[in-house]
Amino acid sequence: LDINSVRGIMVGILTNMCPEIFEKPNKNGEKFKCTIPYVRRYLKKTLKWSVRCGTRAAQKTPEDVDNILSQAFLRMAASIREASIDDGAFLVNTDQTQVIYAMGPKLTWNESGVKQVDVLGTEEKRAFTLVVGVSASGEALPFQAVFAGKTKESQPSTKARSRDEADEIGIIYDSGGHTYWSTLLTMKRYVELILVPYFQRQRRLHKRPTQRCMWLIDCWSVHRSQEFRDWMKKEYPWIIVMYVPAGCTGLFQPCDVGIQRVLKLSIQRCAHKDVVDDTMRQLDGGTAPEGVHLEKRVGVLRDRCVQWMVSAHRVINNEELVKKV
Distance between CA atoms of 278 and 212, rounded to whole angstroms? Predict the structure, then answer.
């Protein structure tokens, strides 16, 4: 159980058994809120539970980071000047982020001291990659979602909640084979189905059919592979590809600096609501609180993520928000 799932269960049980707790103010005039810190204290002090987790080293910033960032900035500035890019609509930054359906197979809350901890779904791919792009003019491009698998069966179904709205936005779904991270093929599809149509639309709107454009992306192995760069130069020579310096993502990449946190908070809220709804539905059906089970099937969660993406796109497709980064 991850902290958000536990919180969702607690909110569902409290809403079912004593809904007045959220409305009745305490002696200080404040209403009760089932916050993440409150849930953590309850798990640790009342249930004597602890979190089991793995750790990884944080990304290291280069020693000469100031010089690296200055050089990257000057390269971009020179390219922008030479290409006469005088409107933010012709400059796009794209970033990839991992979206986990739940906390995942190696992190869970359980009783402190327990030697054996059973975890559901360790054999399944319980995450997908969301490719997020924004323009310097303040517009969020449609998302690309990449799932592990080789066929459309590994993608959300056409009957998924909010699928029609997602299709209107232009969200696309791809399968990455054995991985849910972007591959050469999925990156090409992103360029062909999202990036190029966006730039072409801006060219028409601004009546500049030959305007050159710029695309800022991370220096991941797929992005900087010779095959991908050669393909971009051959197919879209009018798109200038620039790379975020290695180890500087959190300092130089607009999407990472200001968009991903807002996007993930929106997804987290949607996932939390699903947990509350699951809990309430079972309690209303006569299930005892201790018998509540959360929906953990990947197929169901994968369909639910369509609505998460739609809500997140609504939140970040905000000119004021995007321009702040």
Answer: 50
H or E segment and range at residue 312? helix 298-316
Specify the pairing of strand 127-135 against strand 144-147: antiparallel
| Cα pseudo-dihedral 58, 61, 63, 69, rounded to 10 | 180
Q: Which helix (H) or strand (E) holds 213?
A: strand 213-218
Quick one: tokens of 260? 């991903």
| Number of neighbouring beta carbons within 10 Å of residue 226 | 7
- Residue 151 DSSP code: S
Domains annotated for the chain, with CATH where assigned, are 64-105+113-324 (3.30.420)
Q: How far apart are CA 232 and CA 181, in angstroms?
A: 20
How far is it, in rounded angstroms, from Cα 325 to Cα 312? 17
Contact 189, 86 (CB under 8 A): no
> 53 burial class (0-12, 13-18, 19+ CB within 10 angstroms)?
exposed
Q: What is this structure's pTM?
A: 0.81
Q: What is the pLDDT of residues 149-194, one digit of tens each?
A: 988 999 999 999 999 999 999 999 999 888 888 899 999 999 999 9
